[in-house]
Amino acid sequence: MKERHRNVIVVASFTALAAFPLLIVKQAELFRGTDDQAVKAIQTLAPSYVPWFQSICSTSDPVAITLLFTIQGAIGAAFIAYYLISSRRQASKKDPQPGAGRAY
Amino acid sequence: MHIMEGFLPAAHAACWGGVSALCVGAGLRSISRAVKGKPELKMLLGVSAAFTFLLSALKLPSLTGSCSHPTGTGLGAILFGPLAMAPIAAIVLLFQALLIAHGGLTTLGANVFSMGVAGPLIGYGAYRLARTIGLPTGLSVFMAALLADMATYVTTSLQLALAFPDPAGGFAASLVKFLGIFAVTQIPLAIGEGILTVLMYSYIQKHSGNELSALGFIMTGREERV
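Structure tokens for the assembled complex are given below, as produced in the milestone run.
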């Protein structure tokens, strides 16, 4: 199997895996984070427990949180893109295509 | 896998904080040893950190109707060893605790332990075992990433069950409850993380063979062998 075909299959598999739950779980409001569910479970197991420290970050706006997660992801994606481009350039310098030499 | 701010008793938070601080220190030494005299490895280290940054920012839905994050620590654990991921996870989790209110400063130690120590340790062990018994590289990488991800969330469940045992069923009943929240949701996400890690690793194998050799991987052509 060609590498490009394999990569397309891999990316399609990941996309299908991520999208499948959206198709079969009909109630969109169900997609709550596991962190929040854990907090609810703690409150059930130990109703008298009171968190002894509050988050110093006051961001509770879902749009702002989504934006900050996007920034975090973008930082990672930008560095990986830089690596992909620079490693390809290096490889093409080391191993030039036949007939790709400079014409005089 | 973020235990929210203040949701661990102070004694537990202090214990996990101490253990994680030691692991982060050991991780910094491990990274320093790995890149000493080999500046070309800094790019791969950056890629490992960036992969963790990117994947841990993805909030993906799961078949359970919940959503959660991959961790992205399997790749770095394979390349630089499990200790190297502790400082990287600490940076990611500090970013999320300070800016996004995911996790927290008091629970940073517990979260670093699950994501930056336990997960990478299991992932690295799985990779070495898989390669030793002769499994193909792609399958070994897939297993390592999947198990690193799952181990992170199982560890979080253990940490919470230790802190909040069920009044009737004790530690075991509490563990089952937290595993039901974290681990079951995580299965499809861990499979997805395995797929993406294989894709990234195969690219690294193809384009950064010299760097992999410098890390001690035995390269035959463009394939890595144990």
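The radius of gyration of chain B is 17 Å. The domain at 10-225 of chain B is CATH 1.10.1760.20 (Arp2/3 complex 21 kDa subunit ARPC3). Further analysis is deferred to the final report.
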